[in-house]
């Protein structure tokens, strides 16, 4: 059962080493000098993160959206991709040498299907920034940017999806090729985001906890088979998000750790194909290391395929 699990990954900060790649400042203090200082600190921290990943044999990692402070905001006029080109070449070389698959995930305010032109413009800027960062690292098309459909804004789900598709089609090709669409915990279930795939050709990331909170009508095994097939050879292995429900929290709230039972339940319905598993747990790297040990006790190991 476990040989389909290729890699476990985690998000951004290394808690066990008190290591963050998201140093920032107030907007009022965001001078070019300060932004250069923070960018240099965050890139150096990412280098230390890669050393941690190597020591712990972790080959899947989500880079913080805040690696470059205010990167998609007009306040940041620093041409960071040029000024820090040597740092990005070094980091990208290490990422490739270590075989780490990296990704990014804009925050909740990156909403392509918003009715507000200002919000849509900011979403375009954020997605272009994240694609530029992944390009600066020299990563291939398998390094993805995960995004949600967005909101309803008083309309129907079909209208909201159509609006997302129309906006996404306006993105530069290099940005669109990095996008993946994720099912969410309230509005757009796993079957509905497959509609986005059929229109745009972008892969679908399946989120296990979101599916528990917002299940689709079809059997999950059938939906997962369709979702895994959205990933082409150029896109890399299918990728899922795994988290457990926080006790006492609203539906979809992430727990500190990922329960072994959730992973085993997913494996029972997942297609017979290798996949990468990004953990979205508050305990981040500590949650991964604890889950890895617990899974190994049950005979489930990362296959490294």
Explain this structure.
The chain is α/β, with parallel strands linked by helices. It is 42% helix and 11% strand. The protein has eleven helices and eight strands. An eight-stranded parallel beta sheet has the order 3-2-1-8-7-6-5-4. Helix 7 links the parallel strand 5 and strand 6 (204-207). Helix 1 runs parallel beside helix 3 (85-98) and helix 5 (157-168) runs parallel beside helix 7. The radius of gyration is 19 Å and the shape is globular. The two termini are 15 Å apart. The mean pLDDT is 96.
Radius of gyration using CA atoms only: 19 Å
Number of helical regions: 11
* SSE string: EHEHHEHEHHEHEHHEHEH
As a percent range, the share of helical residues equals 40-55%
Report the uncertain regions.
none
Q: Quick check: average pLDDT?
A: 96
N-to-C span: 15 Å
Largest beta sheet: strand ordering: 3-2-1-8-7-6-5-4
Q: What fraction of the residues are assigned to beta strands by DSSP?
A: 5-15%
Q: What is the β-strand count?
A: 8
Q: What would the principal axes of the Cα set say about the shape? A: globular
Structural class, judged by helices and strands?
alpha/beta
- Biggest β-sheet strands, sense, barrel: 8 strands, parallel
């Amino acid at each position: 059962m476990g040989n389909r699990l290729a890699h476990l990954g985690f998000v951004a900060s290394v808690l066990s080493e008190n290591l963050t790649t998201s140093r920032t400042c107030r907007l009022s203090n965001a001078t070019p000098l300060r932004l250069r200082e923070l960018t240099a600190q965050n890139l150096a921290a990412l280098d230390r993160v890669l050393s941690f990943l190597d020591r712990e044999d972790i080959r899947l990692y989500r880079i913080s959206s805040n690696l470059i402070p205010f990167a998609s905001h007009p306040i940041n006029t620093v041409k960071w991709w040029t000024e820090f080109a040597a740092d990005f070449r070094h980091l990208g070389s290490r990422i490739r040498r270590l075989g780490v698959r990296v990704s990014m995930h804009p925050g909740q305010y990156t909403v392509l299907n918003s009715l507000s032109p200002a919000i849509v413009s900011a979403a375009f800027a954020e997605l272009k920034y994240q694609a530029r960062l992944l390009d600066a690292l020299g990563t291939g098309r398998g390094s993805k940017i995960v995004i949600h459909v967005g909101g309803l804004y008083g309309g129907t789900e079909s209208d909201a999806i159509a609006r997302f598709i129309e906006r996404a089609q306006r993105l530069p090709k290099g940005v669109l090729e990095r996008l993946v669409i994720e099912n969410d915990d309230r509005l757009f279930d796993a079957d509905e985001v497959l509609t986005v795939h059929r229109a745009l050709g972008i892969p679908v990331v399946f989120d296990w906890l979101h599916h528990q909170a917002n299940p689709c009508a079809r059997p999950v095994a059938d939906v997962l088979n369709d979702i895994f097939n959205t990933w082409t050879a150029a896109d890399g292995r299918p990728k899922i998000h795994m988290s457990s429900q926080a006790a006492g929290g609203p539906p979809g709230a992430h727990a500190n750790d990922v329960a072994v039972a959730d992973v085993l339940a997913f494996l029972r319905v997942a297609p017979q194909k290798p996949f990468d598993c990004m953990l979205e747990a508050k305990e981040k790297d500590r949650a991964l290391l604890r889950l890895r040990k617990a899974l190994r006790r049950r005979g489930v190991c990362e296959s490294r395929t």
